[in-house]
Amino acid sequence: MEFGGYLAAIVIGISLGLIGGGGSILTVPVLVYLFRIDAVLATSYSLFIVGTTSVIGSVTYFQKGLVNIKTAIVFGIPSILAVFLTRAFLVPAIPLEVLQVGNFLITKSILLMLLFAVLMIFASYSMIKKEKIKVEKIEQPQVFNYPMILLEGMVVGVLTGLVGAGGGFLIIPALVVLSKLPMKEAIGTSLVIIAAKSLIGFFGEHSGAMIQWVFLSKVTLFAIVGIFIGITISKKIDGAKLKPAFGWFVLVMGIYILLKETVLS
Fold it and tell me: Which is higher by pLDDT, 173 or 62?
């Protein structure tokens, strides 16, 4: 199972390098089901893995000038604040035993995994559907829809804090629609936002949990190796064509987690 976990970490990195996102949605399931990490701790570990791999992934976009710093700051501040507060106060406040439904006890870990499964299903839809968001590149001053950006940033931040996923499938459309960024620039800017909020959320957490740095570093390293493999493959294969297939895989995984944590538990 451990070997499968490290192999899956490489696959996560490959997906990030190949299709520009989506891979981080698999990090928590890999940690929970293959490495047998508790779900609550897995969401914390995922923040570090997702944050670090996003830093690596954003370097290429920086080099190509495809990162809008102003947008990253405007969108990132409420998102970072929401992640920090969620990990520091909301997650610790969730009781170990949340709800009893007949003979089925919903624990804190099960609740987080169910929430994660629902997020995976929503993420899969954004990968499967044909991209219709297009913004004409017109030379004009950038105008921010501040109320919507603030709300979207906070929602994404809370979700990231709860389940440890980057939320790129929510951030990228928001940057395109609300900040009028071209798609490639939105992806690069999204990676910077994900990196900042994930790492700040991880290091700012006050859970008192002992971090297994050797294990966490190894998983992160395998994911980074996968990113470089994915970037190399992307030069020969159009990652956009593989995105729907990966989306179906994420959908199946989301349904599997829902079943495993409920009827199959």
Answer: 62
Residue 140's pLDDT is 55
Percentage of the chain with pLDDT > 90?
20
Where does the pLDDT of residue 91 fall: very low under 50, low under 70, confident under 90, or very high at 90 and above? confident
Residues whose CB is less than 8 angstroms from the CB of residue 188 and which lie 6 or more positions away in sequence, other chains included? 58, 61, 62, 64, 66, 67, 68
HEC secondary structure over the chain: CHHHHHHHHHHHHHHHHHHCCCHHHHHHHHHHHHCCCCHHHHHHHHHHHHHHHHHHHHHHHHHCCCCCHHHHHHHHHHHHHHHHHHHHHHHHHCCCEEEEECCEEEEHHHHHHHHHHHHHHHHHHHHHCCCCCCCCCCCCCCCCCHHHHHHHHHHHHHHHHHHCCCCHHHHHHHHHHHCCCCHHHHHHHHHHHHHHHHHHHHHCCCCCCCCCHHHHHHHHHHHHHHHHHHHHHHCCCCHHHHHHHHHHHHHHHHHHHHHHHCCCC
How many residues in the chain? 265
d(CA 31, CA 41): 9
**Residue type at 12?**
I
Sequence spans of domains, the chain: 2-261
Structure confidence at residue 218 as a pLDDT band (50, 70, 90): very high
CA distance 210 to 68: 36
CA-CA distance, 160 to 116, in Å (whole number)?
A: 10
| More confident site: 207 or 33 | 33
pLDDT digits (tens, 9 = 90+) for 110-156: 999 999 899 888 888 877 886 655 544 545 566 667 788 888 889 88
